[in-house]
Specification:
The chain has about 150 residues and is mainly α. It is built from 5 helices and no strands. The chain has one domain.
């Protein structure tokens, strides 16, 4: 992305950041309800808190350093969270190594579907942001020189 951002780029940045912030709030809020879903290594509550912190870190990184790399990090975090919530909603895949069985066939409480929507919005906005970004100056010079 260039140093001069377009209104479209700022809109996509803000959508991605707001999506991740909503995602983090929901995960922090729901974490304690899933403390008993655990293995000897980690609980679902721990995973929710980790996801929330990572979401906030990449959201802040995108605001401070809005580049393709940070947009890609936002996409990875948001898309992986969206896939996880949908998969664990519809498929009982059981325990995966140290990760407990997080199958939950319900969309309630409200936060669960709200986080899914927020994650999808953040993933879509960050993917679009990558698509509308211009190459970095170094890559422009390589293209012009080559």
């Amino acid at each position: 992305m260039t140093s001069q951002r377009t209104p479209l780029q700022w809109t996509l940045i803000l959508l991605a950041v707001v999506g991740l912030v909503v995602d983090a709030i929901v995960h922090f809020d729901l974490a304690s309800a899933f403390a008993d879903v655990k293995t000897s290594t980690i609980s679902q509550a721990d995973l929710f808190r980790i996801e929330a912190v990572v979401a906030l870190v990449v959201a802040a990184a995108l605001l401070v350093y809005p580049r393709r790399g940070t947009a890609l990090a936002v996409f990875v975090v948001a898309a992986s969270a969206a896939v996880a919530v949908v998969v664990y909603r519809y498929i009982d895949i059981g325990r995966i190594g140290p990760i407990p069985n997080m199958y939950d066939p319900y969309w309630q409480p409200v936060g669960k579907w709200l986080s899914a929507v927020a994650e999808i919005v953040a993933a879509g906005a960050s993917a679009a942001l990558i698509g509308v970004s211009t190459p970095s100056r170094g890559r422009e010079r390589e293209h012009v020189a080559g």
